[in-house]
Amino acid sequence: xxxxxxxxxxxxxxxxxxxxxxxxxxxxxxxxxxxxxxxxxxxxxxxxxxxxxxxxxxxxxxxxxxxxxxxxxxxxxxxxxxxxxxxxxxxxxxxxxxxxxxxxxxx
Length: 107
Prior knowledge:
mainly alpha
């Protein structure tokens, strides 16, 4: 179970660095750029730790799924991106895939 917690934290860090990319404005803003790079490093290190005991394909898919879901939700909430029904359906499908991978992988 600990590997799943580490993987979840890696996914949260991924959301952070993806949002940071927007705020860094192409790495032209120093503070936002630094935070983005720190979160990117943390995300990679946590992912590396999680894959010591989780299958790489499952861990990578869950990690990117958490990041994709978080980035999409943040885009709607922070940047006024569209929340149309098709987009929400697709986010729901990603959630279903992440949950399915978790349920089908031994802890």
